[in-house]
Specification:
Helices cover 65% and strands 3% of the residues. The protein is built from 25 helices and 4 strands. The chain has helices at 6-9, 13-18, 26-30, 42-58, 89-94, 98-113, 122-137, 140-146, 160-163, 169-193, 199-215, 221-225, 230-242, 252-268, 271-279, 286-298, 302-315, 320-332, 336-349, 355-368, 374-387, 393-405, 408-421, 425-436, 444-454; strands at 38-39, 67-71, 78-81, 84-88. It has a 4-stranded mixed beta sheet, with helices on both faces. Strand 3 and strand 4 (84-88) form a beta hairpin. The structure holds zinc ion (ZN). Zinc ion is lined by residues 107, 111, 180, 183, 226.
């Protein structure tokens, strides 16, 4: 489990760096740019991946070339930037059915396929997201400079669309409306192609509009960037209802996965109370029990949490994420070898083959500290990093494992890679230079170090 609690999102830099789970670059913070609480979680990533894959194919895009980024924010939001789809965890929590989230994703993929973000209106949004993404990858300065004439990137907040900022607002919204309608149409096409209903998309937008009208002010970022006057809703409704799939409901297994993800999000963003709020009607359902077990774990009661998660595993022994949470609980209880076994079980059951889980097995073994396990630990972490090199926290564990094996050069190289992935190029180059001296010229490690030393900007 790699989700962070909401309080971390606005925590100090030290707290964020200490938290194993936030993929946040120190450079973004140092330069005062907006930061996104990016989170990594194998279960939710796998779910959103399964939501987007068929839609991307229907849009003629290659799923392997589009990255999903989870933002741990309870506000309803989703957007695309470059080849990345960003989705707030709040969007999933707010969606009672998979279909509602899928609808929003289909709409965003409509923007992606239409190349909308490349056009005028998104110059601003782009400036903003490029800054964020750049921070994420640590390529801050170069990317921010690419958005020329945009002034202070840091100053662009959520008040952006209403503040004018040099662009005629009326023209802006007219332009936007066309794109929104196009994205809606594309979304319905993808949903039809994949045999899914467009009802969820409609419900999401209707819900947002209602909430917005009640509050009287447009404070919701998503609503601001997605103007949806009644006529747009009307057009969407007509389109959606034409579909033969309009009344089709999500498969029960998918609904369960969706609810388990919601329970986890609720637990991490408000504990037991939030879980009860979301699943109050049935406290004995798997999602409610799952949210309760995670809340207990987060409240610092590993013994009780372990009993609760074991009860869940007894009910659904094949669920990989129950084993993953069990591993997290065991780590908290100081039983790292048992945790490694639990993560290993999760890895075997995980159909998405998440690199995060693969690395977790190794990280737990490193924490266990047994010399005879270090080789396995290294193999596991390297396997995980191969499919998921952004998991920069894992490099620290890799360095520790190499350190224990007495392979100082490899340890320094792993540290250099970790700093690089975290966006700290200076430290990365220092460690790469140190490592390089310990390898034969032109050996693979020597070249890996050379790569870090000589690369000037982003290597993504
Ligand atoms: Zn849109």
């Amino acid at each position: 489990m790699k989700l962070s609690a909401a309080r971390w999102a606005r925590g100090t830099l030290a707290a964020i760096l200490a938290l194993a789970t936030l993929a946040q670059a120190p450079t973004a913070e140092a330069q005062g740019r907006p930061r996104l609480p990016i989170v990594r979680d194998a279960e939710i990533e796998s779910l959103v991946r399964d939501y987007t894959t068929p839609l991307l194919k229907a849009a003629g895009l290659s799923p392997g070339r589009v990255e999903i980024v989870l933002v741990n924010d309870l506000a309803f939001n989703a957007f695309v930037a470059g080849r990345r789809i960003f989705i707030n965890t709040g969007t999933i929590l707010d969606s009672e059915t998979p279909n509602e989230t899928i609808g929003v994703l289909a709409h965003e993929i409509g923007h992606l396929a239409g190349g909308h973000q490349e056009r005028l209106r998104d110059q601003i949004a782009r400036a903003q997201t490029i800054a964020i993404v750049a921070g994420l990858l640590g390529a801050g300065v170069a990317a921010a400079g690419a958005v020329s004439g945009s002034g202070s990137v840091a100053g662009m907040g959520s008040g952006l669309m209403t503040s004018g900022g040099g662009i005629a607002q009326r023209g802006l919204f007219a332009y936007q409306r066309t794109e929104e309608t196009t994205a809606d149409r594309s979304a319905v096409t993808y949903l039809n192609k994949t045999g899914q209903s467009s009802k969820g998309l409609l419900q999401s937008f209707e819900g947002l509009m209602r909430a917005n009208m009640l509050s009287g002010v447009t404070r919701d970022r998503y609503v601001t960037s997605h103007p949806a006057p009644q006529e747009r809703i009307g057009t969407l409704q007509a389109l959606a209802q034409e579909s033969p799939y309009y009344n089709k409901v999500d498969p029960p297994a998918l609904q369960l996965r969706h609810d388990l993800a919601r329970a986890k999000i609720a637990a991490y963003n408000g504990g037991a109370g939030k879980v009860r709020g979301a699943f109050g009607r049935d406290l004995h359902s798997l999602p409610a029990l799952y949210g309760d077990a995670i809340s207990t774990h987060l409240a610092g009661s590993p013994q009780i949490a372990l009993q609760k998660i074991d009860a869940l595993i007894a009910k659904a022994p094949q669920n990989p994420w129950f084993h993953e949470v069990r591993g997290e609980v065991l780590m908290a209880a100081g039983r790292s070898e048992d945790a490694a076994a639990a993560f290993s079980r999760a890895e075997k059951l995980d159909p998405s083959k998440s690199g995060l889980i693969q690395a977790s097995v190794g990280q737990a073994l490193v924490t266990g500290g047994r010399d005879d396990k270090m080789k396995t630990a290294i193999a596991q972490i390297e396997r995980g990093l191969k499919s998921d090199p952004d998991n920069y926290n894992a490099y620290q564990f890799l360095a520790m494992a190499y350190g224990r094996m007495g392979q100082v050069g490899d340890a320094e190289l792993a540290t250099a890679e970790g700093y690089w992935q975290g966006g700290n190029f200076r430290q990365a180059k220092i460690f790469a230079a140190r490592a390089q001296g310990k390898f034969k010229p032109n050996s693979p490690q020597w070249r890996q170090a050379q790569d870090i030393i000589t690369t000037k900007t982003s290597r993504k």
